[in-house]
Amino acid sequence: MSNFNRGEHHGGRGHDQPEQHNGRHRSRQQLVFREGGYGDRGHRSGALQWAVAVVFTVLAVVVLLAAVAVLIVVLLLQPRSPAIAVRSAALGALVYDQQGTLDDVALSLVVELRNGNARSAAAFSDLEVRVSFHGAALVRLRAAPVVVPRKGTLPLAYVARARGAPLDGAGGSAAMEAALRKGVVPFGVDGEARTAWKVAGVVGLRHWTRLACEISFFWPNGTALDFKCSSKSKFWFF
Fold first, then answer.
1. For labelling alongside 186, which of 127, 197, 216, 220 has CA 20 to 30 A away?
2. What does each C-alpha distance from 208 to 110, 132, 156, 169, 196 come to in angstroms?
3. Alpha-carbon distances of 198 from 79, 82, 231, 237, rounded to whole Å
4. CB–CB of 124/192 below 8 Å?
5. Residue 168 CA from chain centroid, whole number
6. CB 133 within 8 A of CB 171
7. Alpha-carbon distance 77 to 229, whole Å?
8. Handedness of CA 47, 49, 53, 59 (dihedral sign)
9. 91: closest CA among 109, 72, 64?
10. Could you give the CA distance from residue 86 to residue 191 in angstroms, rounded to a whole number?
């Protein structure tokens, strides 16, 4: 009786061992499959990172080459933005009626168009220069489109005249009376022009050049105090 039980017991152990062995084998296969899946993902991720690195490297090289090209152009050709300036001014007439109106005012201005480029002419268009007193507009000066040769200037002589120009209320009248008592009358001058030119005869540039200044005159002799009145420019490629 005891022998039969032992044999049955030993037989049970003999059947359990293959099942445990098969379980361990399946677990090992699952582990290998999972490891293989992670390896494929890592390979794809590494390839993507490598491609991104190559793209950014190429872009960096292109930007560097462009910067070097611009630097070479600036150093060799030394391009300069065209400009406008008031070269001289004089006050020829000034009649104020003390009722807030300028019966007559006349200013002689020489506006100069300047092109400092040694290898390219510059075109000026939409030129307008305005003269004012204490914010009150007196006169507008305009010019037809012109071309200034390389390393050249073009003076434009104007006589800016206004009759019966109202000043800007009580503030304008008070400012004119104070200026006449002082013997120095200030006028505001502002304006702009559109310019176009080329660098190395290939790269075209366009920009607006603008000026804003104040010119004061001794009165009654009409001569101008020392002044500087030239434009500031900005440009873009087209």
1. 127
2. 20, 21, 19, 33, 9
3. 9, 11, 19, 10
4. no
5. 35
6. no
7. 27
8. positive
9. 109
10. 10
Higher pLDDT among residues 47 and 151, named by residue: 151
Range 8-41 burial, b when 16+ CB lie within 10 A, else e: eeeeeeeeeeeeeeeeeeeeeeeeeeeeeeeeee
The continuous run of DSSP H or E covering 136 comes out as strand 136-143
* Rounded Cα distance, 235 and 104, in Å: 39
pLDDT of residue 19: 52
Q: Looking at this protein, which amino acid is placed at residue 184?
A: V
Q: How far is CA 31 from CA 24, 26, 112, in A?
A: 11, 9, 85
Better pLDDT: 130 or 18: 130
> Band of the pLDDT at 76, cuts 50, 70, 90?
low
DSSP 8-class letter at 150: T
Picking from 115, 120, 121, the residue whose alpha carbon sits closest to that of residue 73 is 120
DSSP state of 230: B
Q: What is the pLDDT of residues 200-224, one digit of tens each?
A: 666 788 889 999 999 999 999 999 9
Secondary structure, 3-state, 25-71: HHHHHHHHHHHHHHHHHHHHHHHHHHHHHHHHHHHHHHHHHHHHHHH
Residue at token pair 């007196």? 138
